[in-house]
Amino acid sequence: MTAPQIFDALIIGAGPAGSTAALMLARAGWSVALIEKKTFPRRKVCGEFMSATSRIVLRELGLDDRYDALAGPDVSRVGLYAGETVLDAAMPKPSGIGAAWGKALGREHFDLMLAEAAVQAGATLWQPWTVAALVRTECGYSCDIVNRHQQRRLGARTIIAAHGSWERGPLPVQDVRSHDASDLIAFKAHFSDSQLPTGLMPLLVFRGGYGGMVHSDSSRVSLSCCVRRDALAACRQRWPDASAGEAVVEHIKNSCVGVRDALDGARTSEPVLSAGPIRPGIRTRYSDGVFFVGNIAGEAHPIVAEGISMAMQSAWLLCRRLIARPDAVSSPSALANIGSAYAADWDAAFALRLRAAALFATIAARPAAAGFAMPLLRRFPEILTFGAQLSGKTRTLVAAA
Question: Are 306 and 232 in contact (CB under 8 A)?
């Protein structure tokens, strides 16, 4: 191999967190390598909804208008489909960001838009390339990347890990844990000709899991869900001739009259996607020259539909600190100080969302708890509005100092 090309920052993963970081740093004059193993555009398991709280990030990136043009309709109502229960209430609207509401956009469009903007800002995109080795050096990190026919060595003064939390592999920043029956497996399907009311995003509660529906781009409705591994096995036994994803969709339709009505006459032309396992919780945000953003840093239960927002916002919080200290890439102690400050920013921004998401997921997963809550929700549907507030739908970020 030739002598390695040296970058100020090397970012692993070009999803919402990685591309946001690459775009911000490149615009600030940093040399950035962005490594992505998939070819865009590509479909991806995701709820697709981005809450209005991320408008501040989109506007700073100069992408707000383009996002509006591509995304689905405004989401102004939150709902609940559980058994025979069909409820809806007002979505809380954040203050200080104009007339914006949250919207949904397929990842095949959203990720491509962000990655292209990062490249236009000056980031070097390696796609499709995979990080094969990451080694600590005196000046930062040495990184070997490979694709089908080539291998290259890059150098970086700091690393930003922005790959999904379920990515597995040999690197220190990747997951190597085993699976168990309580793991949550994620699925996503798109439907056309759905009867879901425009502007409504209902929470779906069913035995063995939870999910959500929302109008996305191109007149599609996105259904995403998480199912326990043991519940998935039961679904496959009940519908042995269906794929795993199709069996899960049938299970949800049989469990929720609201979903059954919304999908009456609807059709899908794409296979149901799956990924996982999902493991919510707070993880490492900085370690020995490596920063973590997006789901790999910390992940709320998808029941609150805050994954994209948290991914972009975490990158925004980190890069504001890095941009304020351009000398930090040459100083391990300075990077460590930024890592501590970023972790504190992360906790302040997201800890409440994680606690609220864990509470909601626990209630949804326990039939006795859900049965107790349903009469209260039917009498006071505005509790759904309060729950959306707890999940972070109204809390906008404050710039890191």
Answer: no
Least confidently predicted of 31-45, 163-177, 264-278, 377-391: 163-177
Res 370: pLDDT: 72
Angstrom distance (rounded) from CA 394 to CA 397: 10
Residue 93 CA to residue 237 CA, distance in Å, equals 43
Confidence of residue 171 (pLDDT cuts 50, 70, 90): low
- Look at the pTM and tell me if it is higher than 0.90: yes
pLDDT number for residue 400? 38
Q: How far apart are CA 337 and CA 323, in angstroms?
A: 14
**Gap between the Cα atoms of 371 and 367, Å rounded:** 6
Q: Which residue has the tokens 């229960």?
A: 85
Count of residues in the chain: 401
Sequence-distant (6+) residues with CB within 8 A of 158 are 8, 9, 10, 140, 141, 289, 290, 291, 322, 328, 329, 335
Question: 8-32 pLDDT, tens per residue?
Answer: 999 999 999 999 999 999 999 999 9
Find, among 151, 128, 161, the residue nearest to 4 by Cα.
151
Q: For residue 95, what are the CA distances in angstroms to 310, 340, 395?
A: 18, 29, 9
User: Which residues does 39 contact at the CB level (< 8 Å), separation at least 6?
Assistant: 127, 128
pLDDT of 401 strictly over 50: no
Q: Hey, what domains does the chain have and what are their CATH numbers? A: 5-43+65-72+103-176+279-364 (3.50.50.60)
For residue 96, which of 399, 401, 400 has the smallest C-alpha distance? Answer: 399
Q: Are 22 and 123 in contact (CB under 8 A)?
A: yes
Taking residue 222's Cβ as centre, other Cβ atoms within 10 Å add up to 26
Q: How far apart are CA 380 and CA 211, in angstroms?
A: 21
Cα separation, 120 vs 66, in Å, equals 15
Phi-psi region of 199 (alpha: psi -120 to 50; beta: other; left: phi over 0): left
The terminus-to-terminus CA distance of the chain in angstroms comes to 42
Q: What is the per-residue burial (b if ≥16 Cβ within 10 Å, else e) of 93-115?
A: ebeebeebbbbbbbbebbbbbbb
What backbone torsions phi and psi does residue 225 show, to the nearest 5 degrees? Answer: -160, 165
